[in-house]
Specification:
The structure holds two protein chains of two kinds.
Chain A (H helix, E strand, L loop, with lengths): L4 H7 L5 H16 L7 H32 L6 H18 L1 H5 L3 H29 L8 H23 L4 E2 L9 E4 L2 E4 H23 L1 H11 L1 H6 L4 H27 L1 E2 L3 H16 L4 H21 L4 H15 L10
Chain B lengths: L3 E12 L2 E12 L3 E5 L6 H9 L4 E8 L2 E2 L5 H6 L2 E4 L11 H8 L5 H13 L1 H5 L10 H13 L5 E5 L7 H14 L4 E5 L3 H7 L2 E6 L2 E7 H5 L2 H8 L13
Parallel strand pairs in B: 3-8, 3-9, 6-7, 7-8
Antiparallel strand pairs in B: 1-2, 1-4, 4-5, 9-10
Chain lengths: 338, 246
């Protein structure tokens, strides 16, 4: 059973070039435009800070994006899971304070690794409980999802106040993660570089799993049509729980990394970054991990450049970018699925 | 007597408040293609979605090779060896043809590889566009892919919902050839409004109307029964522009 080749080839022609190059053009424009008003050395410092902030936002937003893209669940509790990640890391750093304050790189990295693993495991478990007990009951109803996950946020944040207290705390950071390098008279902070590398590693890992493994292919198929995936013999309930747990673990990693970046933890920190995460996800396109990365970098860079040039406009610039992108492409830069 | 592969016994299905299937009963036997026909809204697609478990039944039983499946989840039913091709085809547009096939393969062993080769021999275009995004395929190619995914596993029963919908007559002829090949390996239950396709591949038929089976018989009998075709399928004696009865 074969079809006319010419017709088939016509059907396979790629979409318009300008559409595919738009994200790149916007990214490059944003990246280079501030050079007009900022000295080069300051520009490099701001760029590194922006990339680091972007990568941290990517860690939070990718979880939101995957959970919405696959499960069609608007998870307002993501911010609380982010905060839990920060606090679990905070406790681990306090517990391992000798390693944190040690001069040894090995001990510093060891403490950081243990904190990351503990935060991700604890919050992934919280995510599993949240999905099984609460979210599963409200699949298909966005209104109920918003209400019930918002309620869960209150419970999770109050639990933080009970377990860790209501006050802001200073986040310990392993000694070797602090300080800076002087690269040709440009001050390069160490930790933002760690954040950039960590964000790239997480992105590569997610892409590897999504694109190169069968499980990832099934997840991407599920983003498009969950019914069809289960009609093909795949247990979507297990898949959904797993995806929620991964999304929660990414939120935890983002929370821990952000707390180390801002050097503080406080019970309401999740709500601040959840807003950024939603902006990132809307700009990038719901369900797209690459969209989350590009959206997060746009937000991170724009925030840092504008905060230097026009400090009062920093908070609003990302809303403006979101509006402009939505006017041009209502489904975001990298639309996926349904 | 042929083995009963699928038995639907007095099944009731609701969609929201709407009582769609109102005690539907039919059987699909080995070596036969069973065709469910009827007007729009008669409950044909709902019957297939109830069998695969995507719609829960409220009453009645569905048995596959004598085992009850109506209380099972869709993925468990699919693993019993039941393939499903929905009306909208259910293609994963952002995945390549290869990835669509990989999602469908429950086990990637030698037997599956053999079935894949057989399927690709049947649908040559899929091999040609193996690495292309499925969303860029034509309607006929998407239908090929949808059927290929459903038969790449060890499928003993294949449920196909209106495969001819929106396809050109020449593609429908290819589809008839394909279904005639598939029925050598699997029992096929076909929902179809295109009478030419239904009569070309079908062995037995059930006519559904308002959620119940109102008539059943062998396909040759229906071809000559103008009154039934006119009443339940809206087919007049006049030939259609393509020269086939539709």
């Amino acid at each position: 059973m074969e079809m006319n080749n010419d017709k088939a080839a016509m059907a396979l022609k790629p979409a318009g070039h300008w559409e595919r190059r738009l994200p790149l053009a916007i990214g490059m424009g944003l990246f280079l435009l501030p050079l007009l008003g900022i000295p080069v050395k300051t520009y490099l410092t701001l760029t590194i800070a922006g990339l680091a902030m972007g990568m941290l936002l990517f860690l939070v937003a990718s979880g939101v994006s995957i959970i919405f893209g696959l499960m069609d669940v608007i998870n307002f509790a993501h911010g609380a899971l982010f905060t839990w990640g920060a606090y679990v890391g905070f406790s681990i750093f306090r517990l391992l304070n000798k390693w944190v304050d040690a001069e040894s790189v090995l001990q510093n990295v060891g403490a950081f690794t243990i904190a990351v693993v503990a935060a991700m495991v604890v919050v992934a478990f919280l995510g599993v409980v949240l999905e099984r007990v609460i979210v599963r009951r409200v699949y298909g109803s966005h209104l109920f999802q918003i209400l019930i996950t918002f309620g869960s946020t209150i419970v999770l944040v109050e639990l933080i106040r009970v377990l860790w207290g209501p006050n802001d705390e200073v986040m310990p950071v392993p000694l070797r993660f602090q300080g800076n390098w002087d690269v040709m008279d440009v001050i390069v902070l160490r930790y933002p570089i760690v954040c950039i590398l960590m964000g790239l590693a997480v992105y590569a890992l997610i892409q590897l799993v999504l694109k190169r493994t069968k499980l990832g292919t099934i997840v991407r198929a599920g983003v498009e049509d969950l019914d069809m995936v289960q009609a093909m013999g795949h247990n979507i309930f297990l898949l959904l729980t797993g995806v929620f747990a991964v999304g929660a673990a990414l939120a935890a990693l983002g929370g821990l990394a952000m707390a180390m970046f801002t050097l503080q933890v406080y019970p309401d920190m999740g709500s601040t970054y959840l807003l950024f995460a939603f902006i990132v996800v809307i700009i990038g396109g719901l369900g797209s991990v690459t969209g989350s990365l590009v959206g997060a970098l746009i937000v991170g860079l724009a925030y840092n450049y504008v905060a230097y040039l026009i400090p009062w406009a920093a908070a609003g610039v990302n809303i403006l970018i979101m509006i402009v992108i939505l006017l041009i492409r209502p489904t975001g830069l990298f639309p996926v699925g349904k | 007597m042929n083995e009963i592969v699928l038995a639907v016994e007095g099944v009731h299905t609701f969609i929201g408040r709407h009582h769609i299937l109102q005690g539907v009963s039919f059987e699909a036997t080995a070596d036969n293609v069973t065709v469910l026909i009827g007007r729009n809204g008669a409950g044909k697609s709902t019957a297939l979605r109830s069998i695969i478990g995507l719609l829960p039944t409220s009453e009645g039983r569905i048995l596959h090779r004598g085992r009850e499946i109506h209380k099972k989840k869709p993925y468990q039913i699919a693993r019993e060896g039941i393939g499903f091709v929905p009306e909208h085809m259910g293609i994963f547009s952002n995945l390549t043809v290869e990835e669509n096939m990989r999602v469908a393969m429950l086990v990637e062993d030698a037997a599956t590889a053999h079935r894949l080769e057989r399927t690709l021999a049947m649908f040559g275009d899929l091999r040609k566009f193996w690495t292309a995004k499925a969303g860029n395929l034509s309607g006929g190619q998407k239908q090929m892919l949808a059927i290929a995914r459903a038969i790449v596993n060890d499928t003993s029963l294949l449920l196909v919902d209106e495969p001819s919908k929106g396809l050109a007559p020449i593609i429908i002829e290819s589809l008839i050839d394909a279904i005639n090949q598939i029925k050598e390996h699997s029992v096929v239950v076909l929902v179809e409004q295109n009478f030419h396709l239904a009569s070309s591949v079908g062995d037995q038929y059930y006519i559904l109307d308002d959620g119940t089976v109102v008539q059943k018989g062998v396909m040759e009998g229906l071809a000559g029964n103008q009154e039934l075709k006119s009443r339940y399928l809206g087919i007049s004696k006049a030939e259609n522009p393509f020269g086939n009865e539709q």
